[in-house]
Amino acid sequence: MEYRANFILWLLVEIAFVAVQVGMVSVYFNFTDNIAGWTKPQVFLLIGIFRVIEGIFHMFFFQNLLNFPENISTGNMDLFFTRPVNSLFLSSSRYHSLDEFGTFLVGIALVWYSLIQLQFSFSLLLLFELFVLFFFGLLTLYSIILIFSSLSFFFTRMTALHSVYDVITKALRIPINIITKDSFIGNSLLFPLLIVATLPSQILLGYVTPIFITLEIIGSLAIFMVAHKFFYFALRHYSSASS
User: Fold this and answer.
1) Is residue 141 assigned to a domain?
2) Domain count, the chain
3) What is the domain extent for residue 116?
């Protein structure tokens, strides 16, 4: 943030990216009031929830996880494993990108606007529910990308990691049930993606019973445990480039 012009520029760029997506969604709803059971304010709520999660992820984890392949091939990963700090924590959160704050900011604004349009009554309970859904959505996104990043320990070059991330995040910007058509098999296969933003939106909107917040929490923790175990399993296959 010491380079203020650069920080402000990226802030505006991130805001513009979200504005373009919102504009595209608005165009779709010029021709219909409902897409697969979702109205425009409801889709805006989903986009807002995802952008809040994505903004936090980009600020604190994105750069670190997506740099796994380079750090492994250059031997820089040794730095994370020789310090008296948890290896996963240090390797996935050492560098921060605060210029991604714009995504988070617009996400908050979009969630706030959507809740007003949907005539929600603001309360401490609603804010707490939002915080819980944001946290576990973020934990799920972190876990999904950690699993793909950990594959870098097995392959010499993971050049497709950025492309994998782009595909995942593009899918998360729309209701997943549009892709799965609410089929049991489809929802099961895409369950990790479903609980990032779609299920939290459905919980808030009352599409599903409140008990589904338990499913959100248990599912998110389960995926994190799998990612955590897989990271340390993959770590056994790490051969330092400097050794």
Assistant:
1) yes
2) 1
3) 4-235
| pTM, 2 dp | 0.90
Compute how many other C-beta atoms are within 10 angstroms of the C-beta atom of residue 221. 14
| pLDDT at residue 217 in the model | 93
**Residues 243, 238: Cα–Cα separation, whole Å:** 11
How far, in Å, CA of 12 to CA of 100, rounded? 10
Looking at residues 89-114, what average pLDDT do you find? 88
Alpha helices in the chain (DSSP H): 4-28, 40-57, 63-66, 68-74, 78-81, 87-93, 101-117, 124-150, 161-172, 176-180, 184-189, 191-193, 199-205, 212-235
Give the Cα separation of 114 and 109 in Å (integer): 9
Interval 118-139: pLDDT, tens:
989 888 988 999 999 999 999 9
Among residues 240, 42, 15, the alpha carbon closest in space to that of 105 is found at: 15
- Residue 242: inside a domain: no
DSSP code for 153: G
- At residue 175, the 3 state secondary structure works out as coil
CA distance linking residue 57 with residue 140, whole number of Å: 11
In a domain, 212, yes or no: yes
155 part of a folded domain: yes
